[in-house]
Amino acid sequence: MFRTARIYAAAWLLAFVALGCATNPVTGKRELSLVTASDEAQIGKDGFTAVKAEYGFYDNAALQAYVNGVGQRVGKSSHLPNLAWTYTVIDDPAVNAFAMPGGYIYITRGLLAYLNSEAQLAAVLGHESGHVTARHSARTITQQELVGLGLGVVSIAVPGFQKYGQAAQTALSLMFLKYSRDHETQADELGVQYSTAAGYDSREMPATYAMLKRVAEVAGSSLPAFLSTHPDPGSREERTTALSRQATAGKTGLIIRGNEYIRQQDGIVYGVDPRQGYFENEHYYHPSLGFQMTFPSGWKTQDSRQSVVAQSQDQSSAIQMTIVDAGGGSPRDYVSELQRSGKIASASGGSETIGGYPAWVGRFQVTNSQGQTSMLDAAYIQKSGQQMFQVLGLPGQYESSIFSTARSFRALTDPARLNVQPDRVHVVTAPRAGTFQDVVASLGPQAVDVNTESILNNTFPDQPVQAGELIKIVVPGHHR
Description:
The protein has about 475 residues and is an alpha+beta fold. The chain has helices at about 1-20, 35-55, 60-75, 110-115, 120-135, 135-145, 165-175, 180-195, 205-215, 225-230, 235-250, 260-265, 330-340, 400-405, 415-420, 435-440, 450-455, and strands at about 20-25, 30, 85-90, 95-100, 105-110, 270, 280, 285, 290-295, 300-305, 305-310, 320-325, 345-355, 355-365, 375-380, 385-395, 410, 425-430, 435, 465, 470-475.
């Protein structure tokens, strides 16, 4: 037993020497790390491209510049002021924010809509920046030996079909990673420290966490909610209240900018944007790309900018639909090139027409890195000269369902579905004094209930509103 213990100790020592260690910018201590500073930079850089492709950046240059400006002020007040910080708004309804190594910070438009001051935004960005400076992702990668987790509900891991390199896949996996409570405690402390040092009133921070507790899961989002990835380490509101009071003691002129921030939210998309694709039961419609498909009834589905994924209830089968560059050739030409380049071992199938478009439907034999072979169902549908829709399926016992899904592909021509518009946040001035629910009820049709709108305004339905006060309401878009 003692000999075994000595062997394990020696192995760990050798591993430590071989892997080396890195200095933590926050603590100044040396720590064992599988991830170097250059690794972090690469993960962040490659992840930036992957996040843009998978989730999309919110298409509002003024809002992006505003958020990045606040973030830069916070980043320059951190333990890594010279890092090339990048703060970006993701076009997703989830109420969340994420940090990636290398100084890449993301906040969803869903969370932006629920904040109510620039100081709250600074606190959130400070918290995420703290995850970077304290190397939380790098430490977690080291501890768990992350090697590119699956993207979404299911990963169809086929050699040659992975859309991103290892660094990008690792970065994407971090968006779904749950931080430890110790990491959250430290990030809360750093969020207070950085936002206060940047000139913001960090006493706005506790109200942000009170709001997050009230926010329900945003329906239709492909990303998790904040508290699922950033768990409460315990008494978070009380602790950040004490920390912020201590940090701001004796300071004057600290920035809050409530109304200025709220005005920035006027017109922001709220909830799922149907223009980027949406499900109605098993039917999927994509107005921007102009197509529709029908997936197996009862399967779990997930939609992102780059793919639509469905998984059977017993998890034995899955379908993944993506878009590939046809290169000007036909679907048959594309499959032949996959085989010629060694991305697939063999293919059996033939040409047909799906929804009026040229297509190839059949099966692939693929070989993984261990030399094991497996079969995939596949379909390629050419909607335009360069635009090819790729449908891959892990058949299990549902092969007929996979081929039925592929063959359901059609052009979307219904004007009511093509011309959908999302719900949006509108900023209005309270026309009179009264309770929040009474005042809001007088403001015309709205897309969400009064409790949701009270959370959106960081208040409660029975709380008083003064005449002239700015209020955020959600105005309905055009849905079919």
